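Weekly modeling sync, notes
Attendees: AB, CL, MP (scribe)

Item 1: holo prediction request
CL wants a bound-state model with fe (ii) ion before deciding which constructs to order. AB pointed out that an apo prediction alone won't tell us much about the pocket. Agreed to run with the ligand included and paste results into these notes for async review.

Input as submitted:
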Amino acid sequence: MREPKGPPESALDPEGSAARGTALPPAEFAEAFNDELVRALAHVGHPDLVATREDTQIQDLLFAGLKDEIEASEIAAVWMVAEVDLELKLGLARQVGDEARHYRLLADRLRQLGVEPGGVDPRARGYSHTFRYLKGLQTAAERLAANAAREGLARLRNALVASFCDARGDGETARLYRDVIGPDEAWHLDFARRMVARYALTAEDQERARHAMVRTLQLVDDLPEGARAKGGAAGPTP
Ligand SMILES: [Fe+2]
Ligand SMILES: [Fe+2]
């Protein structure tokens, strides 16, 4: 994991209101949170998302995606169990199922490409730094903010993987990422962005949510072990 990049200038707290203990109104916070997320995502480097090399194989990207999907499913399950709010619990339940389905889809695609994924357990080298960070978040506002960042990264990464597959002449894998997995990730992102303002009501919660979003983006280069060495994609494709 490389040294974290500095946090972007905050649209959420332009006048230091959090330091003064003044919370933004929910709608204002939601808009500012989204603006900051979009701006921060624009600064994420493509090599941090998909570290491809001349000899990178599409199967490397698919294998890296397996770990991302199982971790995304598991963290959503951890949060779901602890959640009281029914709308949030059901949203997380959907995400648990979606990410597990993505895992199956990537595994099926590997088989279609002649590679048996069953012999490799993507959990064998342990959980990623991102997973451990997300698991340690204690409040719904932090979890939703981090989830929005993770899903935003996923959308960027999946678009890059799809372009890589197209360039290699594998339109079927590109279609899988764009047309099958892509809409689910868009839903996860929109759900997290929509819900975060419901929970980030105090100045402290808003600041903690912002920090969770920034920190999750800083962990973007948290590659599954060995993925970068093989030229594979890394981090969340949830
Ligand atoms: Fe996913
Ligand atoms: Fe997702």
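Recorded for review: Residues 72, 95, 99, 151, 154, 185, 188, 238 surround fe (ii) ion (ligand 2) (CB under 6 Å).
Action items: CL to compare against the apo run; MP to circulate these notes.
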